[in-house]
Amino acid sequence: MTGSRGRGIALAFGTALISGVSVFVNSYGVRVVRDATVYTTAKNLVAAVVLVFLMIGTRRSVPALRLPRRQWLGLLVVAVVGGSVPFVLFFSGLARASSVHAAFVQKTLVIWVALLAVPILGERLGILHYAAIGLLLAGQAALGGGLAGFRFGAGEWMILAATLLWAVEVILVKRLVGAIPPDVLAVARMGLGVVLLIGWVAVSGHWSALIGLTGEGWRWAVLTGLLLGGYVATWYRALALAPAVDVTAVLVVAAVITAALDAIVNGKDLTPQTAAGILLLAAGAGLVTVARSRRTPVSAA
Question: Within 10 A of 164 (CB to CB), how many other CB atoms are there?
Fold first, then answer.
């Protein structure tokens, strides 16, 4: 495993940790605000501000704002497919689907990234990669109680659409990150994305709810926005260093963190099925960390 890939995988595990905590905290925050569109806009606004300050603090990224027109177009597309439209689709779908089914559909992200990364990015996948993806999905399904009664309704289709857009985002960011620093891409994703979200709030009749958000609502938005800012910052840096499939696969481990917090805070027992899910996810993550170094490709661009 090369040094840069090792750092990228380590960052991806950090991203998974942040994501696991964020999913758990968001489950409380969205119940306080109630309006999912307003909630996601508020927390995305906080995340955008955090990322702007991080970018300014690095200094070296500020001159990179002088970009060619084509790269500015790329930043706008990242904002659309990563920082705005999929959030509306995801939270709208979440209101119609069970949280367990929604989580599983969203975790199929690694499959779509793999399908795109091989022909577009030229990433090479080996037997260990496929085994890791299988273990990660099986582990997520086990944590979800075996997905009993799963079906594709309107909510699940909306979440799948959001997941597909996020897969496109991963590929696009991986293509752009060689020319544009990851912190600039992160600001574009959340900064331009939240501008689009605010526009959607205004035209969809949620504006009064946004400007009338209570102090408690803003406290939750600040907390989850800080987590989201950390998530995007570490995720994009991981993509700059490691293959897209590897980084996305590691993110599935976030489900273990969420399950652990749920058990600790809410006193839920660790059932055999949950334990099996955690073990499968751990095994899948372990395979991801060694897959690239074994170099056993079975497909290539």
Answer: 17
| Per-residue model confidence (pLDDT) at position 148 | 66
pLDDT for res 293: 54
Looking only at the bridges linking them, the beta strands covering 125-126 and 297-299 are antiparallel
* Contact predicate 240/182, CB 8 Å: yes
Q: Is the pLDDT of residue 133 over 50?
A: yes
For 48-71, the pLDDT digits (tens) are 999 999 888 875 555 555 778 888
